[in-house]
Amino acid sequence: LIEQSNLTHISRYHALLRNLHKNLTNPPRKFEPGARVLVLVGEDDLTTPVSQGRMVAEAIAGSRFVTLSGLGHYLFMQDPRQVGDAIRDFLSTTK
């Protein structure tokens, strides 16, 4: 979709992403990865809403879904400590 668009300005790219995410209502195909998966989502993420992160986590067998408070799309940059804590907790409880 992005390759087919004539994106001559960054605002058009942002609009495309907003519309793309708003229209993702079908859950992804379910699958079982060979490893445990942690899905982290910022509660204030305007690009990938919490509901879509939850949909992805539900499609991945045995995954853990975590919403990080006060963070948006760039949660690793916004609060590395909170992200690190979530990853450490996941790793400490995962075989």
Termini Cα gap: 38 Å
Average pLDDT, to the nearest integer? 81
Write down how many β-strands occur, each being a DSSP E stretch of 2 or more residues. Answer: 2
Structural class: alpha+beta
Could you say which overall geometry the principal axes of the C-alpha atoms support?
flat
Low-confidence stretches: 1-5
Give me the oligomer status: single chain
Strand order of the largest sheet: 1-2
Helix content: 40-55%
Order of helices and strands: HEHEHH
Per DSSP, the total helix count is 4
Return Rg in Å. 15 Å
Main beta-sheet annotation: 2 strands, parallel
Strand-residue fraction? 5-15%
What does this structure look like?
This protein is 42% helix and 11% strand. Helix 2 links the parallel strand 1 (38-42) and strand 2 (64-68). The chain contains 4 helices and 2 strands, in the order H-E-H-E-H-H. The chain has a two-stranded parallel ribbon with strand order 1-2. The radius of gyration is 15 Å and the shape is flat. The model is unreliable at 1-5 (pLDDT under 50). It is an alpha+beta fold.
Q: Briefly, what is this?
A:
This protein has 95 residues and is an alpha+beta fold.
Can you give keywords for this protein?
alpha+beta, two-stranded parallel sheet, 2 strands, disordered N terminus
What is the element layout, followed by pairings?
Blueprint lengths: L9 H13 L15 E5 L7 H10 L4 E5 L6 H4 L1 H13 L3
Parallel strand pairs: 1-2
